[in-house]
Specification:
The protein is an alpha+beta fold and 87 residues long. The chain has 2 domains: 37 residues, no CATH class; 49 residues, no CATH class. It has 3 helices and 2 strands. Strands 1-2 form a two-stranded antiparallel ribbon. The longest helix is centred in the N-terminal third of the chain and has 15 residues. The protein is elongated, with a radius of gyration of 23 Å. It starts with 11 loop residues before the first helix and ends with a strand.
């Protein structure tokens, strides 16, 4: 990392701090996911019940509904597909 020099020779702890800061700049979600999970995983029946109860009023604002479809591929019955979709 710049051969341990910025303006003066870096100490080991400064190099470790620079590595940690650069990692955080590239992957901020790594730390955010430890505080709050990015998604709430519920089963399909729970989703249908909540949509029947609240309708689309529960999805107002910036909330989106992400659905993950997993099942057999209709073109090739030997393979399973796993697709994500935002509704």
């Amino acid at each position: 990392m710049i051969q341990n020099y910025m303006f003066l020779r870096n100490r080991l702890w400064e190099t470790l701090c620079l590595l940690l800061i650069s990692f955080t700049l590239f992957r901020p979600d790594f730390w955010q996911d430890m505080v709050a999970p990015p998604f709430l995983e519920i089963s399909g029946t729970q989703m249908v019940e909540s949509l029947d109860r609240d309708g689309l009023n529960g999805l107002q604002g910036d909330r989106v509904l992400r659905v993950r479809f997993t099942g057999p591929d209709f073109d090739n019955a030997d393979q399973l597909i796993d697709r994500n979709s935002i509704l």
